[in-house]
Design brief:
By secondary structure, this protein is mainly beta. The chain has helices spanning 2-33, 190-193, and strands at 55-65, 69-80, 92-101, 106-116, 121-136, 149-167, 170-184, 202-214, 225-235, 245-258, 262-275, 283-285, 299-301, 303-316, 319-331, 343-355, 360-369, 372-379. The protein has a 16-stranded antiparallel sheet, with helices on one face. A two-stranded antiparallel ribbon has the order 12-13. The radius of gyration is 21 Å and the shape is globular.
Length: 383
């Protein structure tokens, strides 16, 4: 009963904070998109006036969870076009997220996504600083729940993806990943008793080729189109990395529009690695983007394959909703990826449109799987 009460308390607090944020943000969101009439999280194609792709969304963030306790911060998103880009081209954006908690945790993220020359060139990046108590259960697909070890990690990470159009929706370029991590561990536990790759922390730097095929109608919240992308990243001492390994990232998404405002999305994601892979670079199940319902990194290993589906539909005014389900598995070898054990989760959530033209949504998701449950309150879609 204590666990049930804690769960109910957690969900109630988050829903209350979300509703408070909705009320505080509605006026700002209307000012950002210049419209006040009724609409939903996925906007209609017809607009009362031409939209020039410029706007600013600013709103406060408030959250609570047993891991973070009270967290306060904010989100700023600036939409703009570079140069004389045509109105029908994709809009560039620059986002800033900042959050501090009562447990002395801090998260700061800068996320630019820039298009220019009529989408012939693009660069997306993510610069983040995190000081965060985290959990580690070990490496593998069958680590027991009682193996959890709490530790403190502090990291700075920069990921960049500059790309150039080759033909039509086909792009090619580079993926770069730079990270510095320092961990503080318990004197007893997994890190003390086992030889975990990457335990000393340090600096990793990787770079490699990338390619993508992208016909999505919107990169923030897609309703139609296809995304295919792959990247190989090599981490080596030649470019300053303290660990030598490589990873291959593959992904496929397709969105089927249903009616005027609903859509069904399907996703495949695969991650494959080899070499001396630090534990914090391993492929991980969980979090607010992959298999919602599991703690981020609950299961981790060198290889991962995941399949997900999500159906999104409007409710009323700026509100929309989603239902989702997915399954994933990690393994030490590609040949060991099979249906036993498979990790699955399903759930649903609410959406609140902060910017209807750019489909920027505030989202509240709840996912559940065998013996696991997670609630996520953030901006932007999971995928």
């Amino acid at each position: 009963m204590n666990g049930v009460r804690a769960l109910v308390t957690r969900v109630t607090l988050r829903i209350g904070l979300v509703l408070a944020a909705f009320g505080a943000c509605a006026g700002r969101a209307q000012a950002a998109d210049g419209k006040a009439q009724s609409d939903v999280a996925v906007p209609n194609a017809e607009q009362a006036a031409p939209y020039k792709g410029e706007g600013l969304v600013v709103f406060p963030l408030a959250m609570y969870s047993p891991e973070t306790h009270v967290g306060l911060g904010g989100l700023l998103v600036r939409f703009f076009r570079v140069g004389d880009s045509p109105v029908e081209s994709r809009v560039s954006s620059f986002s800033v997220v900042a959050l501090v908690t009562s447990r002395y945790q801090a998260i700061i993220e800068l996320l630019p996504e820039i298009y220019w020359d009529n989408e012939d060139n693009l660069v997306a990046a993510r610069l983040e600083y995190q000081r965060y108590p985290d959990s580690f259960w070990g490496i593998g697909d069958d680590t027991p729940e009682d193996a959890e070890e709490r530790y403190l990690r502090e990291r700075v990470r920069l990921r960049m993806t500059p790309r150039r159009r080759i033909a039509g929706p086909i792009y090619a370029g580079l993926n770069a990943d730079f990270m510095y991590l320092h961990g503080t561990y318990n004197e007893t536990g997994i890190f003390a008793s086992e030889d975990i790759p990457g335990e000393p922390g340090g600096f990793t730097s990787g770079i490699g080729p990338a390619a993508s095929y992208d016909t999505r109608d919107n990169t923030v919240s897609s309703r139609a189109g296809t995304l295919l992308q792959a990247a190989w990243i090599g981490f080596h001492e030649v470019i300053g990395s303290e660990y030598d390994f490589w990873k291959l990232l593959t992904e496929a998404r397709h969105f089927f529009p249903i009616g005027q405002e609903s859509a069904l999305g399907l996703r495949y994601y695969g991650e494959f690695q080899a070499g001396t892979v630090p534990y914090y670079h391993l492929a991980m199940i969980g979090g607010d983007e992959l298999l919602r319902g599991y703690f981020m990194g609950r299961y981790r290993d060198e290889h991962l394959v995941a399949l997900e589906a999500e159906y999104k539909f409007p409710l009323f005014w700026r509100f929309g909703a989603v239902v989702f389900a997915g399954a994933a598995e990690v393994a030490s070898k590609p040949s060991e990826i099979d249906a036993d054990p498979i990790r699955w989760a399903a759930g649903g959530g609410l959406r609140f449109a902060l910017s209807r033209e750019e489909r920027l949504n505030l989202r509240l998701d709840a996912g559940v799987g065998p013996g696991t449950f997670g609630v996520y309150f953030t901006a932007r879609e999971a995928w």
